[in-house]
Amino acid sequence: MTWQPLTAADLPLLAGWLRDPQVARWWNHEYTAEAVERDFGGSVRGEEPGEDLVVSLDGLAVGLLQRSVISDYPGEVAEFAAIVDVPDGAVELDYLIGDPSLRGRGLGPRIIAMAVERTWDDHPAASAVLVAVVAANVASWRALEKAGLRRIAEGAMEPDNPVDDPLHYIYRVDRPVRPARA
Questions:
Q1: Which domain holds residue 119?
Q2: Is residue 182's pLDDT more than 70?
Q3: CATH number, domain containing residue 88
Q4: Of 106, 145, 149, 173, which one has the fewest beta carbons inside 10 Å?
Q5: Is residue 117 part of a domain?
Q6: Cα torsion for 108, 158, 17, 140, to the nearest 10°?
Q7: Which of 131, 119, 116 is nearest to 172 (CA)?
Q8: Mean pLDDT throughout 143-161?
Q9: Gene3D superfamilies this protein is in (predicted)?
Q10: Mean pLDDT of the chain
């Protein structure tokens, strides 16, 4: 499993994923070419501090991983901080599996675990990874738990989809302490 930064050539694929009813249920995102360009074009052009990464399995694009330092987005800091302490350098994740045939097969926990492990190298100042997930999205929070994150709090946050209750679970994993070399 690998990932690479989202490119302009990936935007039609992403639009298709966002159009899928299971993805649309939780992401609730417009999927027209104009909307996808508007909302993901900044990442493609390097104008966003966060990362949009296309996840591939055996060379086939299967999903999207978003990763960002929470403090780069003041609105995110405020939402998290209303519920939990946000450690300096904390990183947040979001993800989707675009290929319907791969959902429910353990790919989500693998993507999350890979993202967490790579975060420690890619973001040396990251002390923790935090993920907020709407409480109704059972598959997502189960994937987080299978990937080793633990639920540390719950509280109201603005849901992506207005049909959802604001209740979110907050998951966290801390940077592992590695023994000093002798």
A1: 2-174
A2: no
A3: 3.40.630.30
A4: 106
A5: yes
A6: 20
A7: 131
A8: 96
A9: 3.40.630.30
A10: 94
Scored b (16 or more CB within 10 A) or e, 99-113 reads beeebeeebbbbbbb
The encoded tokens of residue 9 equal 């050539």
Q: Region 48-73: what's the mean pLDDT?
A: 96
Which residues lie across from 130 on neighbouring strands? Answer: 92, 172
Query: What is the total count of domains within the chain?
Result: 1
- Bridge-based pairing of strands 51-57 and 91-97 is unpaired
Residue 135 has pLDDT above 90, yes or no: yes
What local confidence, expressed as pLDDT, does residue 102 receive? Answer: 87
Q: So what's the pLDDT on residue 180?
A: 61
Sheet holding 91-97, edge to edge: 2-5, 51-57, 60-69, 91-97, 128-134, 167-174, 150-156
Nearest to residue 119, comparing CAs of 45, 172, 56, 43? Answer: 172
Pairing of strands 128-134, 91-97: parallel
pLDDT, one tens digit per residue, over 78-108 is 999 999 999 999 999 999 999 888 898 889 9
